[in-house]
Amino acid sequence: MKLNERSLAFYATCDAPVDNAGFLYKKGGRHAAYHRRWFVLRGNMLFYFEDAASREPVGVIILEGCTVELVEAAEEFAFAVRFAGTRARTYVLAAESQAAMEGWVKALSRASFDYLRLVVRELEQQLAAVRGAGGPALPLPLPLPLPLPQPLPQPLPQPLSPTPAPPLPRWPTALPPKENGCAVWSTEATFRPGSEPPPPPPRRRASAPHGSLDLAPFARLHECYGQEIRALRGQWLSSRVQP
Amino acid sequence: MRYNEKELQALSRQPAEMAAELGMRGPKKGSGESGPGRDTGSGVPRRLVKLVVNFLFYFRTDEAEPVGALLLERCKVTREEPGTFSISFVEDPERKYHFECSSEEQCQEWMEALRRASYEFMRRSLIFYRNEIRKVTGKDPLEQFGISEEARFQLSGLQA
Where is the PH domain (chain B) (predicted)? Predict the structure, then answer.
């Protein structure tokens, strides 16, 4: 099967923080010797290098669908990465300490895409539940006192994206295209790109000149939007620094 | 690079997030990796394209084993001609895999799905949701799973 190995190698050696790294002994085959290799876990891929300074991995173990177990082996601190299937290979690895072994077993057993997706879906639902799906267009007053937002590049409450808002819980589509990462937006009702600006607060005093509204609701509105926008900007700016 | 091909083959048989027959063209010859494989006749080769976790498998329409797989990390999905999109990778943006869809809707659907298909995108989503929930409830939702200290879920994971 063809595989985009060059891209794989770049993923292995890119600058983003890794999920785990360290020396492990890898058993060559059923009756083979152990080789000491530098292992790097990133996502659901376990890369191994000749040593920590190598620029290209010797190989990779695709972890999707594996189970991780402790094993009885001549080697101390050994564990196995096992796959289902009749001719599936079992990778026997050994760490250099008890703590390292436990760290690897934990990290590898949580490395699958499936597992991550499950957690994300769970959190998606939790967030919708705590915010109340399809909530009011105006943000609810927050219980804590908020600092006033710093001046923002765009006047509030301009839509930040020209596309219509997708329904919960999908992500907006027309974000600046990036390498497979999107700026992380909140899609929930309090800040919906492309929607009408919220109606101004109602006037309190009929006799007041047109500008003089009760400032308290507006200030709170401004604070709430400002906080959302600062958080979104922060997320977007930090996700622009791509791994 | 060595890799566990049997497991990748097994993965290609898993239920797909999305699957469709699309026209597929690989990067131009002479750039190292070749395209979707040998084909007779003219026209863009048709492939059964299947998205499973962060891999895009592509099969000849009458074969059970995939011709190849693309790991979708650090990839860029770009609209090309109408109904067509391409996948390229951050380190080599000119080498593109082109996919021809049967409609604009299908093209849009695939582009959206592929942009969200990477592990790294999922991770950022998790971190985002975690922070949002923490903001609203004051509690860390990962505590219930016992994974709040897990390195892969920390905010520092967002920085390059």
Answer: 46-119
Whole-structure pTM value: 0.69
The torsion defined by the Cα of B123, B126, B132 and B137, in degrees rounded to 10, comes to: -140
The backbone torsions φ and ψ at residue B35, rounded to the nearest 5 degrees and listed phi first, read: -85, -150
pLDDT higher than 70, residue B3 = yes
Q: If pLDDT is split at 50, 70 and 90, which confidence band does A31 have?
A: confident
Question: What pairing do the DSSP bridges indicate for beta strands A59-62 and B2-3?
Answer: parallel
Tell me which of A16 and A217 has the higher pLDDT.
A16
The residues in A 116-175 lying below 8 A from B, measured between CB atoms, are 116-117, 119-120, 122-124, 126-127, 130-131, 170-171, 173
The domains of chain B are located at 9-26+43-121
| CATH class belonging to B9-26+43-121 | mainly beta
Cα distance between the two ends of chain B: 25
